[in-house]
Sequence to fold (231 residues):
Amino acid sequence: GAVVSQHPSRVICKSGTSVKIECRSLDFQATTMFWYRQFPKKSLMLMATSNEGSKATYEQGVEKDKFLINHASLTLSTLTVTSAHPEDSSFYICSARANRGVQPQHFGDGTRLSIL
Amino acid sequence: AQKVTQAQTEISVVEKEDVTLDCVYETRDTTYYLFWYKQPPSGELVFLIRRNSFDEQNEISGRYSWNFQKSTSSFNFTITASQVVDSAVYFCALKGYSGNTPLVFGKGTRLSVIA
Fold:
Protein backbone atom coordinates (compact mmCIF):
# COMPACT_ATOMS: atom_id res chain seq x y z
CA GLY A 1 0.00 0.00 0.00
CA ALA A 2 0.88 3.66 -0.09
CA VAL A 3 3.60 4.70 2.29
CA VAL A 4 4.66 8.05 3.61
CA SER A 5 8.16 8.32 4.96
CA GLN A 6 9.01 11.00 7.49
CA HIS A 7 12.56 11.78 8.55
CA PRO A 8 14.03 12.15 11.08
CA SER A 9 11.96 10.28 13.63
CA ARG A 10 13.54 12.07 16.55
CA VAL A 11 15.56 15.24 16.93
CA ILE A 12 17.17 16.72 20.00
CA CYS A 13 18.91 20.04 19.50
CA LYS A 14 19.86 23.26 21.17
CA SER A 15 17.71 26.33 21.29
CA GLY A 16 18.33 28.62 18.34
CA THR A 17 19.06 25.98 15.75
CA SER A 18 16.90 25.27 12.74
CA VAL A 19 15.51 21.81 12.13
CA LYS A 20 14.30 20.39 8.84
CA ILE A 21 11.78 17.57 8.69
CA GLU A 22 11.16 15.70 5.45
CA CYS A 23 7.97 14.04 4.32
CA ARG A 24 8.09 11.78 1.30
CA SER A 25 5.39 9.85 -0.47
CA LEU A 26 7.18 6.70 -1.54
CA ASP A 27 4.96 5.12 -4.14
CA PHE A 28 2.48 7.78 -5.14
CA GLN A 29 2.36 11.42 -6.14
CA ALA A 30 0.87 13.92 -3.74
CA THR A 31 0.03 17.41 -4.90
CA THR A 32 -1.00 18.24 -1.38
CA MET A 33 0.54 17.28 1.91
CA PHE A 34 -0.49 18.31 5.40
CA TRP A 35 1.57 19.11 8.46
CA TYR A 36 0.15 18.48 11.91
CA ARG A 37 1.45 19.18 15.38
CA GLN A 38 0.57 17.15 18.44
CA PHE A 39 1.23 18.26 21.99
CA PRO A 40 1.53 15.56 24.67
CA LYS A 41 -1.78 13.84 25.27
CA LYS A 42 -3.50 16.17 22.84
CA SER A 43 -5.07 15.84 19.44
CA LEU A 44 -3.48 16.54 16.11
CA MET A 45 -3.75 20.16 15.08
CA LEU A 46 -3.36 21.11 11.46
CA MET A 47 -0.53 23.56 10.99
CA ALA A 48 -0.48 24.04 7.27
CA THR A 49 -1.39 22.62 3.90
CA SER A 50 1.56 22.16 1.62
CA ASN A 51 0.92 22.59 -2.10
CA GLU A 52 3.38 21.45 -4.72
CA GLY A 53 4.79 24.35 -6.66
CA SER A 54 3.06 27.06 -4.67
CA LYS A 55 3.01 28.63 -1.23
CA ALA A 56 1.73 26.70 1.73
CA THR A 57 -1.53 27.64 3.37
CA TYR A 58 -1.11 28.17 7.09
CA GLU A 59 -3.74 27.79 9.76
CA GLN A 60 -4.59 30.72 11.96
CA GLY A 61 -2.04 31.24 14.68
CA VAL A 62 0.78 29.37 12.93
CA GLU A 63 3.76 31.59 12.16
CA LYS A 64 4.78 31.10 8.55
CA ASP A 65 8.21 32.59 9.16
CA LYS A 66 8.75 30.20 12.02
CA PHE A 67 7.57 27.08 10.25
CA LEU A 68 8.85 27.18 6.69
CA ILE A 69 7.25 24.74 4.31
CA ASN A 70 8.63 23.80 0.92
CA HIS A 71 6.90 21.41 -1.45
CA ALA A 72 9.30 21.30 -4.37
CA SER A 73 8.18 18.04 -5.93
CA LEU A 74 5.17 15.76 -6.05
CA THR A 75 6.77 13.40 -3.57
CA LEU A 76 8.52 15.66 -1.08
CA SER A 77 7.48 18.32 1.38
CA THR A 78 9.75 19.77 4.05
CA LEU A 79 8.99 21.60 7.26
CA THR A 80 11.76 23.72 8.73
CA VAL A 81 11.43 24.94 12.27
CA THR A 82 13.58 28.05 12.29
CA SER A 83 15.44 29.29 15.35
CA ALA A 84 13.76 26.65 17.45
CA HIS A 85 12.90 27.30 21.09
CA PRO A 86 11.84 24.89 23.84
CA GLU A 87 8.16 25.73 23.25
CA ASP A 88 8.53 24.32 19.74
CA SER A 89 9.16 20.90 21.24
CA SER A 90 6.37 18.68 20.02
CA PHE A 91 5.44 15.74 17.83
CA TYR A 92 5.16 16.75 14.19
CA ILE A 93 3.45 14.49 11.72
CA CYS A 94 2.84 14.82 8.01
CA SER A 95 0.26 13.24 5.81
CA ALA A 96 -0.24 12.88 2.10
CA ARG A 97 -3.01 11.82 -0.16
CA ALA A 98 -2.55 10.23 -3.56
CA ASN A 99 -3.67 12.46 -6.39
CA ARG A 100 -5.82 9.85 -8.06
CA GLY A 101 -9.13 8.61 -6.77
CA VAL A 102 -10.54 8.77 -3.30
CA GLN A 103 -7.86 7.65 -0.94
CA PRO A 104 -7.44 7.83 2.81
CA GLN A 105 -4.76 10.14 3.98
CA HIS A 106 -1.55 8.33 4.75
CA PHE A 107 0.57 9.50 7.62
CA GLY A 108 4.27 9.52 8.25
CA ASP A 109 5.50 8.02 11.50
CA GLY A 110 6.05 11.46 12.98
CA THR A 111 9.04 13.41 14.25
CA ARG A 112 9.54 13.95 17.94
CA LEU A 113 11.32 17.29 18.30
CA SER A 114 12.96 18.22 21.58
CA ILE A 115 14.58 21.62 21.96
CA LEU A 116 16.89 22.01 24.92
CA ALA B 1 -17.20 24.49 10.29
CA GLN B 2 -16.31 20.90 10.86
CA LYS B 3 -15.94 19.44 14.30
CA VAL B 4 -15.34 16.02 15.80
CA THR B 5 -16.16 15.26 19.42
CA GLN B 6 -14.83 12.28 21.30
CA ALA B 7 -16.38 12.73 24.71
CA GLN B 8 -14.48 9.89 26.34
CA THR B 9 -11.01 11.08 27.25
CA GLU B 10 -9.82 7.85 28.84
CA ILE B 11 -11.29 4.39 29.16
CA SER B 12 -9.94 1.43 31.09
CA VAL B 13 -11.24 -2.08 30.57
CA VAL B 14 -10.19 -5.52 31.60
CA GLU B 15 -8.93 -7.83 28.89
CA LYS B 16 -11.66 -9.67 26.96
CA GLU B 17 -14.24 -7.01 27.70
CA ASP B 18 -15.98 -5.25 24.84
CA VAL B 19 -15.51 -1.50 24.59
CA THR B 20 -17.15 1.17 22.48
CA LEU B 21 -15.48 4.44 21.61
CA ASP B 22 -17.87 7.24 20.78
CA CYS B 23 -17.51 9.78 18.01
CA VAL B 24 -19.92 12.57 17.13
CA TYR B 25 -19.27 14.94 14.28
CA GLU B 26 -20.56 18.20 12.84
CA THR B 27 -20.37 19.25 9.23
CA ARG B 28 -22.32 21.25 6.69
CA ASP B 29 -21.08 19.11 3.84
CA THR B 30 -23.55 16.69 2.37
CA THR B 31 -20.75 14.39 1.30
CA TYR B 32 -17.88 13.68 3.62
CA TYR B 33 -15.62 10.95 4.95
CA LEU B 34 -15.14 9.63 8.44
CA PHE B 35 -12.03 7.88 9.70
CA TRP B 36 -10.68 6.09 12.72
CA TYR B 37 -6.98 5.99 13.49
CA LYS B 38 -5.05 4.22 16.21
CA GLN B 39 -2.01 5.84 17.77
CA PRO B 40 0.07 3.40 19.84
CA PRO B 41 2.65 4.67 22.34
CA SER B 42 5.28 4.74 19.61
CA GLY B 43 3.38 7.65 18.05
CA GLU B 44 2.62 6.63 14.50
CA LEU B 45 -0.93 6.82 13.24
CA VAL B 46 -2.42 3.57 12.05
CA PHE B 47 -5.33 3.84 9.64
CA LEU B 48 -8.28 1.65 10.68
CA ILE B 49 -11.22 2.60 8.53
CA ARG B 50 -12.71 5.16 6.18
CA ARG B 51 -16.46 5.52 5.74
CA ASN B 52 -18.28 7.56 3.08
CA SER B 53 -21.23 9.61 4.23
CA PHE B 54 -23.52 7.98 1.71
CA ASP B 55 -22.72 4.48 2.91
CA GLU B 56 -24.37 3.78 6.24
CA GLN B 57 -23.69 0.09 6.22
CA ASN B 58 -21.99 -1.00 9.39
CA GLU B 59 -18.65 -2.72 9.02
CA ILE B 60 -16.93 -5.49 10.88
CA SER B 61 -13.28 -6.36 10.60
CA GLY B 62 -12.20 -9.09 12.97
CA ARG B 63 -12.69 -7.80 16.49
CA TYR B 64 -13.38 -4.29 15.25
CA SER B 65 -16.77 -2.98 14.23
CA TRP B 66 -18.10 0.43 13.35
CA ASN B 67 -21.60 1.80 13.68
CA PHE B 68 -22.33 4.79 11.44
CA GLN B 69 -25.58 6.60 12.24
CA LYS B 70 -26.06 9.58 10.00
CA SER B 71 -29.26 10.57 11.79
CA THR B 72 -27.34 11.17 14.99
CA SER B 73 -24.04 12.18 13.32
CA SER B 74 -22.21 9.43 15.10
CA PHE B 75 -19.54 6.97 14.03
CA ASN B 76 -18.84 4.72 16.98
CA PHE B 77 -16.11 2.12 17.16
CA THR B 78 -16.40 -1.13 19.10
CA ILE B 79 -13.60 -3.50 20.00
CA THR B 80 -14.82 -6.94 20.93
CA ALA B 81 -12.88 -9.12 23.36
CA SER B 82 -10.28 -6.43 23.93
CA GLN B 83 -6.61 -7.30 24.23
CA VAL B 84 -3.68 -5.56 25.87
CA VAL B 85 -2.29 -4.73 22.43
CA ASP B 86 -5.39 -2.63 21.81
CA SER B 87 -4.13 -0.11 24.36
CA ALA B 88 -3.59 3.13 22.44
CA VAL B 89 -5.13 6.48 21.69
CA TYR B 90 -7.88 6.27 19.12
CA PHE B 91 -8.77 9.24 16.96
CA CYS B 92 -11.94 9.81 15.02
CA ALA B 93 -11.56 12.20 12.09
CA LEU B 94 -13.69 13.93 9.49
CA LYS B 95 -12.80 15.06 5.99
CA GLY B 96 -14.76 17.10 3.52
CA TYR B 97 -15.50 15.82 0.05
CA SER B 98 -12.96 17.99 -1.74
CA GLY B 99 -9.77 16.06 -2.31
CA ASN B 100 -7.46 18.66 -0.87
CA THR B 101 -9.18 19.24 2.44
CA PRO B 102 -7.36 18.05 5.56
CA LEU B 103 -8.61 15.76 8.24
CA VAL B 104 -10.20 17.29 11.30
CA PHE B 105 -9.45 15.20 14.34
CA GLY B 106 -11.28 14.63 17.57
CA LYS B 107 -9.29 14.93 20.77
CA GLY B 108 -8.82 11.20 20.98
CA THR B 109 -9.76 8.51 23.47
CA ARG B 110 -7.00 6.81 25.43
CA LEU B 111 -7.86 3.16 25.83
CA SER B 112 -6.09 1.08 28.44
CA VAL B 113 -6.70 -2.65 28.40
CA ILE B 114 -5.61 -4.31 31.61
CA ALA B 115 -4.57 -7.93 31.71
